[in-house]
């Protein structure tokens, strides 16, 4: 059996995440990606985007559910997420969320983490925290050692920066884990209040029509 999750790209996961919310045609997907700033997380060009959509359809992760035409516009194909696509996207998130050595895929996994159950997300992020905390300790010790040997700061600014960034990431992650422990925080679409879902639906209708 082929490993569908292993063949996914970060952009492919973003597309699957959009279709997990509702059926869309490619133009709508692209607009949502830009409106949500996800084009700042992964590089998106028209060529890579349409190639990704085509590949997802070829692999059976999305399926065509209709073709429509509005006025003089070209025909637009609407796609839906298949069960295989949902499973592959969730498995990809499971694999990337605890990893510490792949920062760019982690950002996409974090953006799509709401597709997994709260308890599973907490467990995966807790695994990542272990590796992150170890790296913070290692960087702080290394910086202290070289400073203690009298190495001038001008030669240590990047190590100092990296140490600070890792420490801030750890502080942020601890805060997120604390928030996730609060079950009054809605997690996943099923836990969103009806008024929030209505507001999102109205926004999509206004901006994607």
Automatic annotation (TrEMBL):
Specify the Transcription regulator PadR N-terminal domain's residue ranges: 15-90
UniProt xrefs under Pfam families: PadR
InterPro entries, per this entry? Metal_resp_DNA-bind_regulator, Tscrpt_reg_PadR_N, WH-like_DNA-bd_sf, WH_DNA-bd_sf
Taking the record's annotation, the residue ranges forming a coiled coil are: none
Against SUPFAM superfamilies, the record matches this protein to: Winged helix' DNA-binding domain
Q: What is the name attached to this protein's record? A: PadR family transcriptional regulator
What species is given as this protein's source? Microbacterium ulmi
List the lineage, top down: Bacteria, Bacillati, Actinomycetota, Actinomycetes, Micrococcales
């Amino acid at each position: 059996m082929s490993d569908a999750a292993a063949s996914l790209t970060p952009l492919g996961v973003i597309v699957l995440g959009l279709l997990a919310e509702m059926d869309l045609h490619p133009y709508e997907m692209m607009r949502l990606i830009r409106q949500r700033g996800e084009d700042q997380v992964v590089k998106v060009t028209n060529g890579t985007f349409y190639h990704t959509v085509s590949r997802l359809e070829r692999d059976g992760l999305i399926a065509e559910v209709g073709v429509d035409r509005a006025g003089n516009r070209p025909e637009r194909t609407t796609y839906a997420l298949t069960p295989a696509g949902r499973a592959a996207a969730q498995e990809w998130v499971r694999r990337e969320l605890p990893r510490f050595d792949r920062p760019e895929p982690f950002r996409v996994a974090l953006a799509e983490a709401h597709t997994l159950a709260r308890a599973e997300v907490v467990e995966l992020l807790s695994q990542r925290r272990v590796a992150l905390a170890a790296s913070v300790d290692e960087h702080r010790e290394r910086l202290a050692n070289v400073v203690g040997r009298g190495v001038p700061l001008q030669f240590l600014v990047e190590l100092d920066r990296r140490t600070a960034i890792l420490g801030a990431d750890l502080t942020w992650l601890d805060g997120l884990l604390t928030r996730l422990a609060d079950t009054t925080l809605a997690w996943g679409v099923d836990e969103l209040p009806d008024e929030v879902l209505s507001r999102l639906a109205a926004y999509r209708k206004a901006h994607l029509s």
